[in-house]
Amino acid sequence: MNESIVRVAVPRPLRRGFDYAVPAGMATPPVGARVRVPFARGQVVGVVTDHRSRSEHALKPVSALLDDAPLLPRDLMDLAQWLADYYHHPLGEVYATMLPNAARQGVAFAPRWPRAWRVATAGADAELARAPRQRAALDALRESGAPMPESELRALGFERRVLEALQRKGLARCVDTPPVYRVGASPHNLSDEQRVAAEAVVGALGDHAVVALEGVTGSGKTEVYMRAIAAVLERGGQALVLVPEIALTPQALARFRARFGAAAALHSQASDRERFDTWMNCRQGIHKVLVGTRSAVFTPFARLGLIVVDEEHDDSFKQRDGLRYSARDVAVKRAQLLGVPVVLGSATPSLATLANVARRRYRHLALARRAGGAAMPALRVLDVRGQRLRDGFSDRLAAALRHHLDAGNQALVFINRRGFAPVCLCTDCGWQARCADCDARLTMHGPRAVAPAAGWEASGEQQPQPGQGGVAGGQCAAAIDPLRHPATRLRCHHCGRSYRRPATCSDCGGEALLAVGIGTQRVESGLAERFADVPLYRIDRDTTRSPAQIERRLQALSDGRPAILVGTQMLAKGHHLPGVTLVAVLDADSGFLSPDYRGAERTAQTIIQVAGRAGRGARAGEVWIQTHHPDNPNLLALIQSGYAGFAAAELADRSDAGLPPFAAMAVVRAESADSAAAEALLRRVVTTLRAVPESAGAIEVTGPAPSPLARRGGRHRHQCLAIAPRRRPLRAALAALAAADIRAPNVRWSIDVDPYDVF
Ligand code: ADP
Ligand code: ZN
Ligand code: ZN
To answer: Is residue 242 included in any domain, yes or no?
Structure first.
């Protein structure tokens, strides 16, 4: 027998590979290539992980070889194995997570250029006087400074017919040629700090190093990244930039394109096919710069020279289901496997990163000043104990807002809760509206939030006019009373289920229902009443889902005239809003009082990031933070000594408590429609974890206990927690757990290593 044999990882939750024979006439599939193989009663697409010379059994043959060259280069094959070991996840499912959908489904790759559009100069702008959509599309192309893929233009709301109209007028041209990269000059002279940081990163190229770039908001971190990327391109390399969310920051992509002539983006708006094309064009070395979200960390490259993780503290780098990886940590591992540097940039570095800096595992570079000379905003705490708040505002804060608007400035109001009110309460008996499927209260949403497209968004052309009670951003026009409005809904933010507004209390039948608490919609409607003369824009997941919508709102602010922006943490994501001089944080307390061990860290980061939107232009900014707990030690540390002071105090607390980053942690969660079954399974988990000899005395296992959200979507949830001062015994215990292959009918369970939330 001299037939060759390949071992294949199949996309099933099985912790072993399967061997297949290569039939006569088929080339031997290389390691890293996809094959179609028979499995169970069907066919699956798997990845070749190994060649073998013989087998004791008669083997089924490979049905088809899908790639003649490895789709996954060596470093990604090694990374896959590392992911499987570190996160205790089946290797075949690791590959399934790494591959884009189209690749996973077995689509063959044929090189292809996605259609792109660029500006042309044969026509005259005057022809656009009556075509605002075309005008806007042309502006987007000009701002980009480089050809833009049609998929992104579509995501910005420009249909092909708009682009074709521009082409007929000689103002735009469709291109389908490979991207042309060049290194353009920086529009700025780098500050000394920026230069030192950029030189340090450039000096590290060609070797593995982790560089934590701690730069205050607006300090010009992107300029440092671009300088380092330029050096990579000049050496014939490629660069990967991971960002929390592309849709929210089209400006950032435009900056990379303007500097490098092109930049590929992996974003959620692209089709499966487009994502696969982008992925492969990186693999082939045709794309030199890729900007992408979490899963872009798995993109294959021909010559990757640098990885940047921007806003490395951001929670969206953590995948919350399936393979629960942290893209930041995976980026560090990948850079290590490739022998290239990785830059972790943030104004508010994660405590994990700061601990690695303290242990001298990571290098630390700081940008302490804002670029272009803007001052950092002053933070002030507003004690609102005993005060009556109207739609979330104390009188003093409302006066400050009026003051800034009258001075011709813009203001940003931050409240991290969407909807009108988080509680619908019966004042007669205390009943609160709850979800039938979840252990959670329902959030009241006023009429417009239910159908945001019914506002000016839908027509696409009209902009909100000042003086109309701020009829903007899909808001309730005047201050409506959602309790009386027939279109008001109660919605569950955990399972998405939506309910009709109750007319009466379902316990006592009383009619004294009350909306308690505030959400963005209520804040917006209160502001519309108080500041009827000022345009108002709300940014949250109800009003703003697409890049086009966020673009339009930010565009509306770009003239610098007085305006108010209300929103959730979507507003904290790196936008440059030079007209904003006041940032109001309506409620700092709920975050700091969160029972989750990362609650304070997350809240401090959000406050500093939102605060960082203030005073980025010529005028100085200030930040007002309302609180009922002015003595909260976290808040005091943040105000008195900034993020660094907060972080130092919080790290000391974590160290005392034996919590990450000073310990390794994992959560095992189980859920089932049958609560007892989930709990029973976790009891076996706990026993297994404790039985591992290496873990005796070295790891602490607690639980099982009901999860903080004990029921979601009709399923009961339980969890147990394993924590150890050192990683090795925890890893051994989890490996034993994974190998034990515990199962129970209708119970789903998962291991989450380095969880971002335990509550
Ligand atoms: P960060 O990402 O650190 O918050 P950005 O990189 O977005 O900051 O830069 C903030 C603003 O400052 C941008 O508009 C950028 O063009 C500008 N900028 C960056 N570096 C300089 C510089 N050296 N001089 C003047 N302006 C700069
Ligand atoms: Zn009642
Ligand atoms: Zn629910």
So the answer is: yes
CB 344 within 8 A of CB 333: no
Tell me: the pLDDT tens digits for 180-224?
899 998 889 999 999 999 999 999 999 999 999 999 988 999 999
Shared domain check, 350 and 201:
yes
Whether residues 316 and 427 fall in one domain: no
Residues 624 and 687 in one domain: no
Peptide bond before residue 535 is cis, with ω within 30 degrees of 0? no
Kindly state whether residues 487 and 550 are assigned to the same domain: no
Domain ranges, residue 499: 422-517
DSSP 3-state assignment of 528? Answer: helix
Which ligand sits nearest to residue 513's alpha carbon?
A: 2
Mutation choice for ligand 1 from 193, 196, 217, 222, CB with most ligand atoms inside 8 A: 222
Closest ligand relative to 496 C-alpha = 3
The pTM (predicted TM-score) of the whole model is: 0.91
User: 442: which residues sit within 8 A by CB, 6+ positions away?
Assistant: 424, 433, 434, 435, 490, 491, 492, 499
Top-confidence range, 481-490, 530-539, 690-699: 530-539
Is 188 touching ligand 1 by the criterion CB < 6 Å? yes
Tell me if 599 CB under 6 Å of ligand 1.
Answer: no
